[in-house]
Amino acid sequence: MSSYKDKKVISIGTVNELTGLTLRQIRYYEERELIFPERTKRGTRKYSFADVELLMKIADKREEGVQTYEIKEDMLHENKERVIEHMLRGQLNAHFRLNK
Question: Is the dihedral of CA 55, 2, 11, 41 positive or negative?
Answer without folding.
Answer: positive
